[in-house]
Amino acid sequence: MSWLILFAAGLFEIGWAVGLKYTEGFTRPWPTLATILSMTVSLALLGLALRTLPLGTAYAVWTGIGTIGTVVLGILLFGESSDAIRLACISLIVAGIVGLKLVTP
């Protein structure tokens, strides 16, 4: 169950990372509110997952999910680069997350 909670925390991290772009420096109230809400939920879920998962593993997976999702949405929403080297580097992050999952009880 902790892994599912951690995955959800990572999804909310993607939400607040992308939300920061839409706040335009916290000048737009609704995107700012949604971003702050997503930050709060993400951290609360991470805290719940840390009850049973090791800190280093949970934090690495949480930030990895956030990084991967943010890069993908950056490509899809903001026209950021999707060249082969960038995607290969992202695949290394995916491999790291899978590896951590496999070696963590």
Automatic annotation (TrEMBL):
Transmembrane annotation, as ranges: 33-50, 57-78, 84-103
Localization in the cell: Cell membrane
Topology versus the membrane: Multi-pass membrane protein
Alphabetized InterPro entries for the sequence: EmrE-like, Small_drug/metabolite_transptr, Small_multidrug_res
Annotated keywords: Cell membrane, Membrane, Transmembrane, Transmembrane helix, Transport
Short name of any one Pfam family annotated for the protein: Multi_Drug_Res
Keyword hit for Transport: yes
NCBIfam families reported in the protein's UniProt record: PRK11431.1
Entry's family note: Belongs to the drug/metabolite transporter (DMT) superfamily. Small multidrug resistance (SMR) (TC 2.A.7.1) family. Gdx/SugE subfamily.
Protein name: Guanidinium exporter
Originating species: Aquibium pacificus
